[in-house]
Amino acid sequence: MSLLEATAVSFKRQQQTLLQAVDLELQAGELVGLIGPNGAGKSTLLKILAGLQTPNSGSVKFQNQALTQLPAKIRSQKLAWLAQGGTIHWPLSVERLVALGRLPHLAAWQSISPSDQAAIEQALQQTGIAHLRTRDATTLSGGERTRVLLARALAAEPIVLLADEPIAALDPGYQLQTLELLRAFSQEKRACIVVLHELSLAARYCDRLYLLDKGCVVDTGSVTKVLSIENLKTVYHIECEIGCNKIPWIIPRRYLYN
Ligand SMILES: Nc1ncnc2c1ncn2[C@@H]1O[C@H](COP(=O)(O)OP(=O)(O)OP(=O)(O)O)[C@@H](O)[C@H]1O
């Protein structure tokens, strides 16, 4: 079942074309990776898919319904967006911050129900931050903050998770744990699009990839198709070694413009 579908999405800002005729589809049960060099347009695309920015042309549909037709409350129940390098401005406890993920499900002044509390607790446990629940969220380390913000997104129990570089600030252990978590999330009726720069991990965890460069999808399909030596040379200007020893690996050997 198609959960999210972008068709011919283009986006301009101050005469600069940031996205050009992007087509993307996300099926239920998929963990799809969005990769590409800095400035390719990945975050811009994710915000458009989340309904936070409106494309100049093209359309985005969630479960076959135009995203623009979906009431904001329903949209925020169904789609969770995890910002790149998210910041925390308010001195809330970690638990209260994660609880904000339930807001789309609550009516005005409605307090948290046992099922809301269960979702919050599950998110705290899944992301390994339960021990931080009473901490002031503004005092967290970069990696802890990342996991707290992921927990807030998961607490919303969305159908689609749009995660922008969720492992960039994490140590190798939490990188694996987080990608396992995203894979477990992307089962049955749910799905996730994840922006990654860690190509070996993208190859290992993603079902399919979209490779974006200069606002265009330059390749899409299986990880072995997209993560080719030629593609990596063209978009990242690197010479790579690619292999697989039970798990796939990609070693960037040389930056070709030096
Ligand atoms: N508010 C803005 N005003 C002007 N230009 C912007 C704005 N937001 C993004 N851009 C530009 O749009 C292009 C795409 O940005 P975007 O953040 O989508 O890239 P990205 O692929 O996510 O990059 P990265 O891997 O570095 O996070 C970049 O050239 C960026 O400088």
Can I get a quick summary?
InterPro entries: AAA+_ATPase, ABC_transporter-like_ATP-bd, ABC_transporter-like_CS, P-loop_NTPase. By secondary structure, the chain is an alpha/beta fold.
Task: Pick out its properties.
alpha/beta; binds adenosine-5'-triphosphate; 31% strand; 258 residues; 31% helix; four-stranded antiparallel sheet; six-stranded mixed sheet; Rossmann fold
Describe this structure in words.
With 258 residues, this protein is α/β, with parallel strands linked by helices. The chain has one domain (2-255): 3-Layer(aba) Sandwich (Rossmann fold). The chain is 31% helix and 31% strand. It contains 9 helices and 12 strands. It has a 6-stranded mixed β-sheet with strand order 6-7-8-3-9-10, with helices on both faces. The protein has a 4-stranded antiparallel β-sheet with strand order 2-1-4-5, with helices on one face. α4 runs antiparallel to α5 (142-155). The mean pLDDT is 96. Adenosine-5'-triphosphate binds at residues 13, 18, 36, 38-44, 84. Residues 4-239 form the ABC transporter domain. Belongs to the ABC transporter superfamily. Keywords: ATP-binding, Nucleotide-binding, Translocase, Transport. Pfam families: ABC_tran.
